[in-house]
Amino acid sequence: MSVNGIGGGAMSVDRIMAMRAQILEKNQALSRANPEVAVPATEAPKGNSFTSTLEGMLGDVNKAQNQAGQLSAAYERGETIDIAKVMLARQQASVGFEATLQVRNKLLSAYKDIMSMPV
């Protein structure tokens, strides 16, 4: 039985499970070789969940946008602020927002793919 049901170049479920077993086996061997660095397979790293990472990134983007807004407003009021600093802050906020938008689009695409999978 193939993963995507097409057959041709698709990998079989058995082959994928065998590859998974090999990866787990190699991971355990690496854990035994260097126990100080190893993370137990049954435990997720503390504080590094997807949700907390995403919240942190969104907070950083929000902070960059707020800072860019404050610098722009201060420049418009005539305060002595370097225009290069204002433009750099605005560009950083823009890039952060675009990256966040792309992550959102990828998450929505993955969600749609998962929801359209047959049960």
Automatic annotation (TrEMBL):
<keyword id="KW-0966">Cell projection</keyword>
<keyword id="KW-0969">Cilium</keyword>
<dbReference type="InterPro" id="IPR001624">
    <property type="entry name" value="FliE"/>
</dbReference>
<keyword id="KW-0975">Bacterial flagellum</keyword>
<dbReference type="Pfam" id="PF02049">
    <property type="entry name" value="FliE"/>
</dbReference>
<protein>
    <recommendedName>
        <fullName>Flagellar hook-basal body complex protein FliE</fullName>
    </recommendedName>
</protein>
<comment type="similarity">
    <text>Belongs to the FliE family.</text>
</comment>
<keyword id="KW-0282">Flagellum</keyword>
